[in-house]
Design brief:
alpha/beta, 259 residues, seven-stranded mixed sheet, Rossmann fold, 9 strands
């Protein structure tokens, strides 16, 4: 019988961070799923309100940095409601395809009407699954992207390894993720907004302050841009670079799978 890989069956004593809380690694996926089940119906609206619309600019910048070409096959890991997929689908054209890959069905369903209303629906596919065990053969995609999702994985590095595996030689990875402002005074304002404004908005808009307490906590606990770059290089990506957006509230990382 073939042994199960270690990350398929977390050790009983293994733990992971869920925001500031340590939880059993085996439980984190379920707890994150509950979070997104709570916010899915108003996810797009809340993103726009809470980022003051900036998330649209960040996503356009990130997809541009991925450097897609017409006809490319792209995997959108933790693709959620499909904002990045729609942007990528416009670039890859009629011959290209974008696969939205997400473990959370509520998020996929929340994005379906938006994609159906677009003229790009025929280029976008859906697949429900775990980002740490991508249901794809090796070297199947020209590009892989993950937006605001890698920090939610129990083992982010395994997620990056899986994206590396499914990319063709020369394929490109893009990771868009929250970070922290670089200016100290702006970071103080951002912390006040994150830890007081976001939970209040969550209670009002989705009936859960806890859902939007997890968000700033998970950002604070995630690796900084330089650390993410080091993880990507360790995973096997070359030409790794990152760009801070809006004084570092978000950061875009890109890398290339060495041919």
């Amino acid at each position: 019988m073939t042994p199960t890989p270690a990350h398929d069956c977390p050790d009983a004593g293994e733990t992971a961070y869920l925001g500031y809380r340590r939880v059993a690694a085996a439980d984190k996926g379920l707890l994150v799923a509950r979070h997104f089940n709570t916010v899915a119906a108003r996810y797009d609206l809340m993103n726009t309100l809470l980022s003051f619309g900036l998330h649209h600019l960040w996503k356009r910048t990130a997809v541009k940095m991925l450097g897609l070409k017409e006809g490319d096959r792209v995997l959108d890991v933790c693709g959620g409601t499909g904002d990045l997929a729609l942007l990528a689908a416009r670039v890859v054209g009629p011959r290209g395809r974008v696969c939205i890959y997400d473990i959370n069905r509520a998020m996929l369903e929340a994005g379906r009407p938006k994609i159906a209303r677009s003229d790009l629906a025929g280029r976008i596919l859906y697949l429900q699954g775990d980002a740490e065990r991508l249901s794809s053969p090796d070297q199947a995609f020209d590009g892989a992207m993950v937006g605001f999702g890698i920090r939610n994985l129990t083992h982010p590095q395994i997620g990056f390894q899986e994206m590396h595996r499914v990319l063709k030689p020369g394929g490109r990875l893009m990771c868009l993720e929250f970070s922290q402002p670089t200016w100290a005074w702006f970071r103080c304002l951002y912390d006040l907004y994150s830890f007081y404004g976001l939970p209040l908005a969550g209670r009002v808009m989705v009936g859960s302050g806890q859902a939007y307490t997890y968000l700033p906590e998970s950002i604070r606990m995630f690796a900084r841009p330089q650390e993410v770059s080091a993880i990507l290089e360790e995973t096997g990506f070359s030409q790794v670079r990152f760009r801070r957006l809006t004084n570092g509230i978000a950061a875009v990382h890109v890398g290339v799978k060495t041919p």
